[in-house]
Design a protein that fits this description.
2 strands, 73% helix, mainly alpha, 311 residues, Arp2/3 complex 21 kDa subunit ARPC3
Length: 311
């Protein structure tokens, strides 16, 4: 669902940049107010996990594929504001290091993946669990919230393309909604699986992950193992175009692709490695580490600033 450079007109990507920058800055401010050691560990590993799972494109139907987005899962595990910060970091790493999504389109991709997805996921999950906070409800709510987050993010991407004059609004929304109805099922299943794991090992973290550093590290270790396993499994990811690419191929007008920066590992391939499969796996591992390290460094800086402000 990543929009590349050149697909959006300046009249769309500039406001998207400004809006996403303001929202992410606000999210970071809220994170800084409540940040604790356990939260840092869990957020860094969550970033690595989301990055890795986004590489696992799964076939859907009709020559298209889908991939995990992770916004709802991050919001359920971390809370809305930390999830927005984590997702923003993942989108930045993908654009800068792997040319997955454009630099000019970075604001638009943040709006869909780091703002809309987490916000919708958090709202639906919280509303459902507030009514009936049982294990079964939490699993059902995690599936439903992830499905809805995928749908809303896809529709938001369709609107952004329409605002740039690239696709007709009605057909784009129908097509994006149709394909992501199916892709959302995969998103929901993965999210429910992650929440099921968390409920099995440390259900208390769903209520307050920042209050128990030891518990957060336990869950983070499990997520880290899943992330590294996912990097290896990316070898088997579907090569079919994802939902947005497929819809644009069917409905979109021609645009001139641009390259704002030279990414070191475009298309998730580590340069200098002759074996294509191995190059992809190694690129995934590097990206997983970079995503986690970026969030860890950012949060450490925020925590240091918060400590300095408190003195």
């Amino acid at each position: 669902m990543h929009i590349p450079d050149g697909m959006l007109e300046a009249r769309t990507w500039i406001p998207a940049w400004l809006a996403s920058a303001g929202l992410i800055a606000w999210a970071l401010r809220r994170v800084r107010q409540t940040l604790a050691e356990g939260g840092i560990v869990l957020m860094a590993v969550m970033a690595a996990l989301v990055f890795t799972l986004q590489m696992l494109n799964f076939p859907v139907a009709g020559g298209t594929s889908g991939h995990f987005s992770g916004g709802a899962a991050a919001a359920i595990v971390l809370g809305l504001w930390p999830a927005m910060a984590v997702m923003a970091a993942v989108v930045v790493v993908q654009a800068v290091f792997f040319a997955d999504g454009g630099i000019t389109a970075l604001g638009a991709n943040m709006l869909t993946l780091a703002v809309v997805g987490p916000a919708i996921g958090a709202a639906i999950y919280r509303a459902a669990v507030r009514v009936r906070p049982t294990r079964r409800m939490k699993l059902a709510a995690s599936f439903a919230s992830a499905w809805a987050a995928t749908m809303c993010a896809a529709l938001a991407a369709g609107v952004l393309l329409w605002l740039s004059g690239r696709v007709p609004l009605g057909p784009a929304l129908v097509a994006m909604g149709g394909w992501h109805t199916l892709i959302g099922v995969g998103e929901g299943a993965i999210t429910a699986g992650l929440i099921g794991y968390l409920l099995a090992v440390r259900p208390d973290l769903l209520a307050a992950n920042e209050r128990d550093p030891a518990a957060a590290r336990t869950v983070a270790a499990g997520f880290a193992v899943i992330a590294l396993l996912g990097a290896v499994l990316s070898l088997f990811a579907s090569a079919e175009p994802d939902g947005l690419e497929y819809v644009y191929q069917q409905l979109g007008s021609a645009f001139e692709p641009v390259s704002v920066i030279a990414s070191p590992m475009p298309d998730y391939v580590l340069p200098g490695v002759s074996n294509t499969a191995l190059a992809g796996v190694l690129a995934g591992i590097v990206g997983t580490i970079v995503a986690g390290a970026l969030v860890s460094a950012l949060l450490a800086a925020l925590r240091g600033r918060a400590t300095k402000d408190a003195e």
